[in-house]
Specification:
About 20% of the residues lie in helices and about 30% in strands. The protein contains one helix and two strands; from the N terminus they run H-E-E. It starts with 8 loop residues before the first helix and ends with a strand.
Length: about 35
């Protein structure tokens, strides 16, 4: 519809052993491994 594809980032990253955090002030996702 909008030429966008959404994926479950938290689910995928956690399954790969990474940590996912949301920074509400900057509205960004931080992924660390």
């Amino acid at each position: 519809e909008n030429d966008r594809t959404y994926c479950p980032v938290r689910f995928i990253c956690e399954k790969l052993g990474a940590s996912v955090e949301w920074n509400n002030d900057t509205r960004e996702v931080v992924i660390t491994k």
